[in-house]
Structure formats: C-alpha cells, structure tokens
Write a structure and sequence with these properties.
The protein has 297 residues and is α+β, with helices and mostly antiparallel strands. It contains 9 helices and 9 strands. The strands form 3 sheets. A 4-stranded antiparallel β-sheet has the order 4-3-6-7. Strands 8-2-9 form a 3-stranded antiparallel β-sheet, covered by helices on one side. Helix 1 runs antiparallel to helix 2. It is globular and about 70 Å long.
C-alpha cells in the first residue's frame, strides 16, 4: 500500500519542475521576445507558488531555478557598469493580509516605536540609475542583474524629463537618483500604428516598448520615441534628510520629475486608504512597503 505522504511529495516535486519550466519560458517571452503571454499578476502568482513549494522541498534546490535570480536586462551592445548600491527588486503582494503582516514585522523590529511609511504608486517601466556630479548628469545605468547594468547615458540624455544640468540648489556634490523610464500611452499607440502600417511586429505594452527603445544603439531613435521618466529614490552621502519623502521633495526642487501621488502614512489604516484610493490606477498594491523611518520622539 502506497504512503499518501510520499504521493503528495512526488506530486509537489513534479509541480516544482513544471513551474520552473513555465517560468523560464515566460521569462524568455518577456525579456527576449518582447511578447509576454501572461499578466504580471499571473506571473507573480506562479512565482510565489514555486517559492512556497521550494521552501517545503529544499532537497530539490536548483541554482538555476527562476526563484534564484531576477531577470536581467543586460545587452551586449553596451558597456556594463557596476552599481555602487545594488539595485534590488520589489516584493509584490495582492492582499491586505500580507501588508498587515509586513507592518507588524516592522513594528516588532522597531520595538513598537511609531514610524512613518512613504506610500507611492508603482510605475511599470524600465528601472534606471542616474549619477550626478556637481549638478551635472554623468552616467545613466539600467538595472541589469542588480549588481551591474548597461551604460545608456547617451540615450538617456535625449529624454527631456531628465535634467542634464540641475537648475536648483542645495544638492550634494555627488548623488544617485533612481526611477523608471516610461513610454506615454499616446506615444505607444502612435508607435504601434506606424509599425502596423509598416507590417512590423507590434510591441505588447508600453513597458516593453520603452525597454526596446532605451536599448537602441541609435540615440536619434530614442529621442524620436519621446520617452518619459519619474524618479523615486535618492541615494548618497549628505542627503538633505533621513526621510525618503523629504528627500524626494528636495529632489523635486532640483528639477527632477517625481510623483505627485506620494503620501506619508502613520498607521496601517492609512496605508489601506492609500491603496484603495489608488487601486483604479495600478493593478498592484502601491509601493507602500519599500521605505520607512522612525518618528523622532
């Protein structure tokens, strides 16, 4: 007579293998073919299922599992630059219970001290790291594999939303600011209409179009595509404040385009209010879990 536990274990291991194969395939479609067939939410659901199963079965660990890496956007046509600060990925969630669990963990780690959370909308574009020295843009690097990325400075200089020389004052002599390169919907629709007329394959969504554009080896083409950008993270020494929200407000005065949808929350209920208010604009929970700081007593 077979052992039911053994049968379940074998089924779960088989499911691990199936999920790995599926996710590798969808990564290829997304990052290489620019033709995703799954929504981000469905991809994340499959990834979460695989993570849970692999945690139950460490005996089938595979260093090449999709859970062991974040998709890289490195290209052979660009010089690779090592990030001064690793560009980590965001963790996604689609329910309030997980937000509550995260909030409780932070509160516990801070010994029950009051703390603030900076809530933001999540932009679905191509991550970019911009380095400024003496108020001038000196380098623009994609996320790549998180440790190093492609130097796309020449292309980024064509994006009018990104200042080449800062008009403001009070900024550090050297700092890094990160954000998302986006393609506006109007530009995306016009681009696909032109490609359809020329009988060329269409871009699946603005994110893929922005990625493909920024990785072009022709800056003139990039300029023609009219990309946009929003900045959301300031890094470096001698920053204006120890608060994320305050730093972005300072960056705004230096000439950077930052989201007007930011909001500081001091309770879980206020986070939920922000999420519910913003839900019609983004399918994921807002970027409410990334930065926090304790309030001074």
């Amino acid at each position: 007579m077979s052992n039911p536990n053994t049968t379940v274990q074998m089924e779960e291991i088989k499911r691990i293998e199936e999920l790995r194969e599926q996710l590798h395939h969808h990564n290829y479609l997304y990052y290489v073919q620019n033709s995703p067939t799954l929504s981000d939410q469905e991809f994340d659901r499959l990834m979460r299922e695989l993570q849970d199963l692999e945690a139950k079965h460490p005996e089938v660990y595979d260093p090449n599992s999709p859970t062991q890496r974040v998709g890289s956007d490195l290209s052979t046509g660009f010089t690779q630059v090592k990030h001064r600060y690793a560009m980590l990925s965001l963790a996604n969630t689609y329910n309030e219970q997980e937000v509550a669990s995260w909030y409780a963990t932070v509160s516990k780690d801070l010994g029950g001290q009051p703390f603030e959370v900076c809530c933001e909308l999540k932009y679905d574009g191509l991550s970019i790291s911009l380095t400024y020295e003496q108020g001038r843009l000196v380098r623009a690097v994609t996320r790549g594999d998180g440790e190093q990325g492609d130097d796309v400075t020449a292309n980024v200089r064509t994006i009018r939303a990104i200042p080449l020389v800062l008009p403001g004052t009070g900024y550090p002599n050297e700092f890094e600011i990160r954000g998302e390169i986006l393609m506006p919907w109007k530009v995306f629709e016009q681009l696909n209409a032109e490609r359809e007329k020329a009988e060329e394959s269409l871009f699946a969504n603005p994110r893929n179009a922005a990625s493909g554009t920024l990785k072009s080896l022709d800056p003139k083409l990039v300029a023609k595509r009219k990309l946009d950008a929003y900045l959301y993270h300031l890094l470096g020494n001698n920053l204006p404040s120890d608060g994320h929200y305050e730093n972005l407000k300072a960056a705004e005065t230096w000439g950077f385009k930052v989201s007007q949808g930011m909001h500081k929350a001091t309770s879980l209920e206020q986070i939920y209010e922000f999420i519910n208010h913003s839900g019609h604009r983004t399918p994921r929970f807002a970027r409410c879990h990334r930065w926090y700081r304790t309030k001074s007593k």
